[in-house]
Amino acid sequence: MAAKYMSGFGNGFETEALAGALPVGRNSPQKVNYGLYAEQLSGSPFTAPQATNQRTWLYRIRPTVRHTGRFEKISSGFVRTAPAHDKTDLPLGPLRWSPTPIPKKALTFVTGLYTVTTAGDADAQAGMASHVLLVTKSMEREHFFNADGEMLIVAQQNKLRFRTEFGVIDIEPGEICVIPRGVIFRVELIDGPARAYVCENYGGAFKLPDRGPIGANCLANARDFLCPVAAYEDVEKPCTLYVKWGGEIYRTKVPHSPLDVAGWHGNYYPYKYDLRRFSPVGALLFDHPDPSIYTVLTSPSETPGTANIDFVIFPERWAVAENTFRPPWYHRNLMSEFMGLVYGVYDAKPEGFVPGGMSLHNQMLPHGPDSDAFEGASNAELKPVKLTNTLAFMFETRFRQRITQYAAELPTRQDDYADCWKGLKKHFNRKQRKPK
Q1: What number of other Cβ atoms are within 10 A of residue 285's Cβ?
Q2: Every domain of the chain and the residues it spans
Q3: Radius of gyration, CA atoms only, the chain
Q4: Strand 55-60 to strand 37-42: parallel, antiparallel, or no bridges (unpaired)?
Q5: With CB atoms counted within 10 Å of each terminal CB, which end of the chain scores lower, N or C?
């Protein structure tokens, strides 16, 4: 079934694949039309404030208690969950990787998930993990849900199809998909082997950031987020259900497809967003605003203004600031930054940071433009310039991000990354007050 969507973010939606599948005026009638079962999926405590209370009613062919047969623990493969302290010999410092090659062997969404960093504590529902996803094989009568956190998937190479309890979502490079914790889905290839980045959010659900003085418009607008319309499978064939729970991977047998929801209504659902619809704001005269102005989604913490995770992008945009160093400035930061490049060139790292690659600048460790970017930006003619065909992103968290053994031993890790700043020269001259 092709993907079909409804528009909006944070809204309560209702959709049915069969006319009359949704009961009118009540959530759990004594009997549901078509012999369906009523089941609620809660993404928040029952007593959460109305603004953050998330739940959806699903009307399905069989309730999910039929899925909870005998679970068996299986190997977690290369998936790690915080707090995970893999022992590595890597010294402290900035890290960067070239693109991870997509292997020839068969890898599904479950077996192709490789953890790069972990942060915080999943049991305390705080922090995150960053993964690289390599998929060479569609899931066939296999399904998965994550009880540890919601998953934000950034497509980087080729398209991915997510068949979920709620309906079908397709994404391509330049788009993201968010699957809330507990939602069952399977992943299929559309146009060949795919690579993506994944942020696993242990904390509060992603939401639109408060715009503050920016006001009601720009950045990511709610109307551009899309959630799927109902689509169900009535398939009486055995399936395997994989579950990530407490940092472990389990599986069980299900005698039918678990994607059997004929209708649903509520405000807890998977969704997609086209990052090319982000409306950036910036400096119109001088200076360089903080990168937080490029925040697409944020996972709040208990401390106001301090995010559990910020999902930040650097999209196409105009650079017009006068007498200003336009690339990101040199800085040290409380937040730790996992960064990836979807396509194009990143203006602060024109060499070495390529599409499909990734970098990590951890808490309070200095970073900024490389030598070539500094010289180029310091001497460029400051006329209006449009940065085109570029899309980079950050998974930024208040926690330090710990490297997994897998990431430390990747042959794509650039041992000489720190050398990109070696060319920065001393320009200080106490007798020359004004720059040349």
Answers
A1: 9
A2: 5-275, 279-419
A3: 23
A4: antiparallel
A5: C
Give the DSSP H/E element, type plus range, for residue 292. none
Question: Is it true that 5-275 and 279-419 share their CATH fold?
Answer: yes
User: Which class is 279-419 in CATH?
Assistant: mainly beta
Question: Could you read off the pLDDT tens digit of each residue along the chain, which spans 436 residues?
Answer: 678 999 999 889 999 999 999 999 999 999 999 999 999 999 999 999 998 999 999 999 999 988 767 899 999 999 999 998 888 888 899 999 999 999 999 999 999 999 999 999 999 999 999 999 999 999 999 999 999 999 999 999 999 999 999 999 999 999 999 999 999 999 999 999 999 999 999 999 999 999 999 999 999 999 999 999 999 999 999 999 999 999 999 999 999 999 999 999 999 999 999 999 999 999 999 998 888 999 999 999 999 889 999 999 999 999 999 999 888 889 998 899 999 999 999 887 888 899 999 999 999 998 888 888 888 888 889 999 999 999 999 999 999 999 999 999 999 999 999 998 899 999 888 888 887 7
Tokens of 153: 């998937």
Architecture of the CATH domain 5-275: Sandwich (2.60)
Q: Catalytic residue positions?
A: 288
Which has the closest alpha carbon to 197: 175, 217, 215, 182? 175
pTM of whole model > 0.90?
yes
